[in-house]
Amino acid sequence: MSFEIPQRVGFIGLGNMGSGMTRNLQRAGFALIVNDIRRESAAELIAGGAEWAETPAEVAAQSDVVITMLPTPRHVETVLSGPTGLLAGIADGGTWVDMSTSVPDVANRVRAENAARGLHILDAPVSGMSVGASNGMLQIFVGGDAADLERLRPIFEAMGDPEKILHVGAAGTGYAVKLMINQLWFSHLVATAEVLSIGVKAGVDLGVLRNSLIASPANSNFVQNDILSILDNGDYDEGFAIALACKDLGLSIDLARSVGVPAELSSLVEQIYRRARAQYGDRAGEMTPVKLYEDLIGVELRLETVTA
Ligand code: NAD
Predict the structure, then answer these.
(1) Whose CA is closest to atom 25 on ligand 1?
(2) How many Å lie between the centroid of ligand 1 and the Cα of residue 11?
(3) pLDDT single digits (tens) 238-283
(4) Choosing a second label site near 19 at 20 to 30 A (CA), which of 5, 31, 140, 155?
(5) What is the C-alpha to C-alpha distance for residues 228 and 237, in angstroms, rounded to an integer?
(6) Distance 202 CA to ligand 1 centre (A)
(7) Could you tell me where the beta strands, DSSP code E, fall in the chain?
(8) Quick check: 107 pLDDT over 80?
(9) Which atom of ligand 1 is found nearest the CA of 72?
(10) Domain locations in the chain as residue ranges
(11) CA-to-CA distance for 157 and 20, rounded, in angstroms?
(12) What region, left, alpha or beta, does residue 31 occupy, with left being phi > 0 and alpha being psi -120 to 50 degrees?
């Protein structure tokens, strides 16, 4: 199969994720047309040759493909709609890729309302945190037409690990996969925080407890790797705000509701996340629920400071 690789990439949403992703697209040689409500977020890209567009419609009109990387479905809806919105500027037959963590409703409505326009729409949310966005090693979960993914593969490869750019099914499945990944990861986080807190309070050395968990059937990638961000460095990952983590958990429970599956455990995890958000603020890191437990037991879970 051969086709022309889109060269002009529009990108809307230059936050924690979008800033790293666009830097990598620029490095890979794509011409960028960018927009954000915070113009200052584009300064470095513009210095590197990117064009600024005043509205999403202008981004779409000047690009071969438009990518959105926005906080919530509501923000995506805003960027799409109205006379200055993406849909007003995109050509018939044009391509829109939503890489936000979101739900299928918005894109489904766009498809239904624009059926005659022949738009190509992919959902392609990502994992890998802001560090993965910066170093171009994101995992990308693509829902939609597989031929569209192949046409856009060089663009995805500029932002993600080529081995981890996965076609996961029809439109909407990328969003679903991403929400389930986050749901399980947040559940691991809460379960691990609870277990470590109980064990430490029961007098077990934190390092010994963690090593024992690792050597047992209860081991997980979270216990082995991800929790170290806190245990070694006291880093709760402010690169992903807890407000957005709560958004993801809410969307995940909405999805469970829409497919008729009870989400009892997920709902409890969501409540614990909401408590942490209320206590530490919207901008606190996604791993801040661990701090709830630390505050409760009066001990910071740090490998070098906690002793038996
Ligand atoms: P962010 O809040 O840091 O960035 C969002 C950007 O969108 C901001 O620059 C904001 O100004 C811009 N924006 C908002 N409304 C806009 C509008 N109407 N027009 C133009 N720009 C607008 O968020 P983020 O951390 O970059 O996350 C983006 C998406 O990626 C979210 O859906 C999030 O859940 C998902 N995600 C984040 C991470 C992470 O570690 N941060 C990891 C994986 C997925």
Answers:
(1) 16
(2) 12
(3) 999 999 999 999 999 999 999 999 999 999 999 999 999 999 999 9
(4) 5
(5) 11
(6) 41
(7) 8-12, 31-35, 51-52, 65-68, 95-98, 120-123, 126-127, 138-143, 160-169
(8) yes
(9) 32
(10) 8-170, 177-297
(11) 14
(12) beta
Q: What are the distances in angstroms from CA 211 to CA 27, 81, 200?
A: 41, 52, 13
Tens-place pLDDT, residues 183-211: 999 999 999 999 999 999 999 999 999 99
Residue 125 alpha carbon to ligand 1 centre in Å: 12
Domain at 8-170, CATH homologous superfamily: NAD(P)-binding Rossmann-like Domain (3.40.50.720)
Ligand 1 atom nearest to 18, measured from its CA: 26
Residue with CA closest to ligand 1 atom 8: 15
* Residue of minimum CA distance from atom 12 in ligand 1: 13
Q: Are strands 51-52 and 31-35 parallel, antiparallel or unpaired?
A: parallel
Which residues are identified as catalytic?
A: 178
What CATH number labels 177-297? 1.10.1040.10
Residue 202, amino acid: A
Task: With residue 53 as reference, give the H or E element that holds it.
Answer: none
Over residues 31-81, the pLDDT tens digits come to: 999 999 999 999 999 999 999 999 999 999 999 999 999 999 999 999 999
Of the CA atoms within 13 Å of residue 235, those in its CB half-sphere come to 10
Locate 213 and state its tokens: 């968990």
pTM tops 0.85, yes or no: yes
